Amino acid sequence: MKKLLLTFTFAALANGGAAGDWPGFRGPLGNGVSDEVGLPVALDAKKHIAWRIDLPGRGLSSPLVVGDRVFVTASGGTRQDRLQILCLNAADGSVIWQRQFWAMGSTVCHDKTSIAAPTPVTDGRRLFAIFSSNDLFCLDLDGNLEWLRGLTFDYPNARNSLGMASSLVLAGGVLIAQVENDSESFTAGLSKKDGVNLWKIDRPKSANWTTAMVQKTKSGREWVLLQSGKGIHAVNPKSGEVAWHYADGASTIPSSTLAAGVLYVPSHGVTALELAADGKSFRQRWRSSRLRPDTASLLVHHDRVYSLNSAGVLGCGDAASGQRLWQLRLDGPFGGSPAVADNHLYAFNEKGTVQVVDLSTPEGRIAGEMELGEMIQCSPAISNGALYVRSNKRIWKIAHKTQL
Amino acid sequence: MFKVLTALSLAWTPSLGRAADDEFDKSVAALRAVGGEGQGNLAAGQAMQRLAKSRAVTLPALLSAMDGANPFAANYIRGAVDVIVGNTLAKGGQLPMVELGEFLLKKSHDTKPRALAFDLIRRVDAESAEQLVPGFLGDPSVDLRREAVTRLIGQATGLVKSDNKPAAVLLYRQALDAARDLDQIQSISGELRELGRKVNLTRHFGFLVNWQMAGLFHNKDRAGFAEVFGPEENSNLSASYNGMDGKVKWQPYSTDDEYGMVDFNKPYGDLKEVTGYAQTEFFSGSDRPAELRLGCKNAWKVWLNGELVFGRDEYHRGMRIDQYKLPVQLKKGSNTILVKACQNEQVEDWTVQWQFQLRVCDATGTAIHSAAKKNPEVAAK
């Protein structure tokens, strides 16, 4: 089922996960690319919806997969102040365990989003889940709470009345929480062991919903690439020190993506930054205003950069030059980011339609479509021959039923 | 507190033995000792591992341990409760339903563990749980109260369908009196108005509608938020200040908006990069805790009796009723509430608003109304 991409697998294992796992926002490398092959393409609900399970609350966080377990967060209750973390059996969707906590921070947000907006992350032993209320919980994979933090309780003006959404990342053995907003804006490096601050740095005072990328150098050193309206800051995850700053601005909604040492930034359209091998500097390679993404994050696969614009058009550019190669109109809008596996791009729109684009054709071709019937705003998880996607009410497993 | 916990654990876990009780108490104490910025997390995590092995009989003691606990500790204990309940039910065991019910019915316990007790009872025995719901109508827990209001709404809707409108009106009235959640309040008031009855939502929520306003002061480059203008130093209604266009004096302002919207654009026009102040006098019948609940999409600061309560420099990210809940201590007699609202430079359609809404209530959201000023005892400072 899995293609043996040595570097990919090595990187995933280095982060604590196992091959085939989907341990955080946009997968093992945070770029929306999976090494799975043989996923269903010509989708048919009767053949390919392996299971569908009701959730106890709203959410647009992405599911995670570790081995045969699926993890997902949700926010329930009238005020969305019941923070839920669920562990499901990947085989049949049954609930293995479910934990509920009370929100300690603000649960005010825009109607379209929810308090379960950020995606959790796992190192394969612990699950770290943060919510829009900036409440953070660390549990072992059997659901035992190891520690918790209330970041808005600790820093009362760290909140956003529209809701927070930056997902957690792990880098250099440190948990990175990006809590950026108009007022008490910061990013903190937290101890995985007990959640205390290892460092905390002031960040631009502006609402920000992006998720950081992690660059890993050949020597094994990792850098956190924080995106904001002020551009990109490369930060040492162990100290919070800034190594370099790309200061020409960046979007605060779609996130950057990293491929082959180049960071593709939603900045003036798309700006490609070639990162130094030691991670301590960068140089701008190209800029293209014709690949401007809307809400969905950028995706790079097989030397092509893909973006979804506000009209629902999938743009494909040359990753080396930024030259736009082709466009394909999809049915949007897209609140979540697409994912790629086996040369097929899976894009879930807000109407609940999944569209599969065959990227092996000269100008892309829609090879499959399926209606889920509910608004989808999350990015899918891909693991062990299946896609997992959730709405405000449910979570689906999409796979060849014969392979279950 | 430690003695209380010991007594409780002895009461609820007679079969654990002295050593186990001590272990239980130490574990609970570790969870209750957790503080901000992760203080005590390591010990709490270890305590969680021990408590998670407890038997279901300890659940009432764990719920009791949430009384007076800070939010971190309450969540830790909740984590232990979830594990114990999950393990017990997975093994076909039983929860101590009677003890959980007795805990739930004792209103002196904190609201969150009481609501949790109800959830546990409902999870195991929905029918018994439903029978408890009518008793929640005036409950200090907004979650439990909501259950009772939902039930009344259903009954009233049934009466409307059976054309017994007078009885429906009375049930809706009862439901409205008890309702604290916006969606329920709006639903009930809509039904009552459909039935030809008047509803005073302004009074139900307790929005403050009579104010004095002072403006204009600058907010160039958003600097006005931090700058101390005259009203912050002297809020006397007879005072005058140097404003951005000359002398500024307090002027009366009243709103007839149902949700108490205080709109600076009305007296001053649709302006940008400006700061305004509003103040009002609130008479409390006693020294008492309360909450100032504010909705505002501009940068704001709130003072009570000259003391800064809180401030936030966020612009146009949305506005909700009860967006900010500010715990305060009212003093008996006159209390001065001062609000600073800053408008920024943005020009988009959705950045026109320069306004706020504020109410005074208790922790459940029940309106506290300003006492009559003419009562000399209340008005006395």
Brief account:
The complex is a heterodimer of chains A (404) and B (381). Chain A contains 3 helices and 33 strands.
General shape of chain B: globular
Proportion in helices of chain A: under 10%
> What's the multimeric state?
heterodimer
What class do helices, strands and sheet pairing of chain A give? mainly beta
Secondary-structure element order of chain B, as H and E? Answer: HHHHHHHHHHHHEHEEEEHEEEEEEEH
List how many beta strands of chain B DSSP finds: 12
Helix count of chain A equals 3
Distance between the termini of chain B: 37 Å
Account of the 3D structure:
Helices cover 4% and strands 42% of the residues of chain A. Chain A has one domain: Methylamine Dehydrogenase, Chain H (7 Propeller). Chain A has three helices and 33 strands. Chain A has helices at residues 6-14, 45-48, 151-154, and strands at 33-34, 49-54, 64-66, 69-76, 82-89, 95-102, 121-122, 126-130, 135-140, 145-150, 169-171, 174-179, 186-191, 197-202, 213-216, 222-228, 231-235, 242-246, 257-259, 262-265, 270-275, 282-288, 299-301, 304-308, 313-318, 324-329, 339-341, 344-348, 353-358, 365-371, 381-383, 386-390, 394-399. The longest helix of chain A has 9 residues, at 6-14. Chain A has a five-stranded mixed beta sheet, with no helix packed on it. Chain A is mostly beta strands and 404 residues long. Chain B contains 15 helices and twelve strands. Chain B has helices at residues 2-12, 18-32, 41-51, 59-64, 71-90, 97-105, 111-124, 126-132, 142-161, 165-178, 182-194, 201-205, 230-233, 265-268, 376-379; strands at 210-218, 240-243, 246-249, 251-254, 262-263, 274-284, 288-296, 299-304, 307-312, 324-330, 333-343, 355-361. In chain B, strands 4-1-6-11-8-9 form a six-stranded antiparallel beta sheet. In chain B, strands 5-12-7-10 form a four-stranded antiparallel beta sheet. Chain B starts with a helix and ends with a helix. Chain B has three domains: 2-124, no CATH class; 144-199; 210-379, Jelly Rolls. Chain B has 381 residues and is α+β, with helices and mostly antiparallel strands. In chain B, helix 1 packs across helix 2 (18-32). In chain B, strand 2 (240-243) and strand 3 form a beta hairpin. The interface between A and B is large, with 42 and 38 residues.
